[in-house]
């Protein structure tokens, strides 16, 4: 499907994050991610509301819901089909998305303390493309799911 489309160049991204805690359980998190080398990677702003609660003294569940906004550079690089390629090097039609809503997401995460320093975590997530991203001819599957599991070591406490 991507054959005939220009490659998206590798780049260096800078991230700036902020978290506002309403209380011990509820928070609002936002991360701005920007292409620092101007390689047509654009910028995104991901924002999510999170609610975490203990189900035991060592285990916590977190629920999250949020959205991602993207500028027109990001949308054109990752969701667009340039007119120079449309019908020439690819069978896809030309598509020039604008800035706006990229996607929405939902997630569930479980963290449990294995010991004072080790944490086992896992989660499931769902993401759905929105707006111009969803209308892109590249968006064959606008819904995506993910599963993660990991083990973390807490040092320096």
Q: Could you report the average pLDDT, rounded to the nearest whole number?
A: 95
For the record, the CATH architecture stands as: Beta Barrel
* Main beta-sheet annotation: 7 strands, antiparallel
The neighbouring-strand order within the major sheet is 1-2-3-4-5-6-7
Structural class: mainly beta
Distance between the termini: 49 Å
Describe this structure in words.
It contains 2 helices and 7 strands. The chain has helices at residues 72-79, 131-135, and strands spanning 13-21, 26-35, 43-54, 59-70, 100-113, 118-129, 143-153. The mean pLDDT is 95.
Name a few traits of the molecule:
157 residues; mainly beta; Porin; seven-stranded antiparallel sheet
Short description:
By secondary structure, the protein is mainly beta. The protein has one domain (13-153): Porin, CATH 2.40.160. The protein has 2 helices and 7 strands, in the order ββββαββαβ.
SSE blueprint:
Blueprint: E1 13-21, E2 26-35, E3 43-54, E4 59-70, H1 72-79, E5 100-113, E6 118-129, H2 131-135, E7 143-153
Antiparallel strand pairs: 1-2, 2-3, 3-4, 4-5, 5-6, 6-7
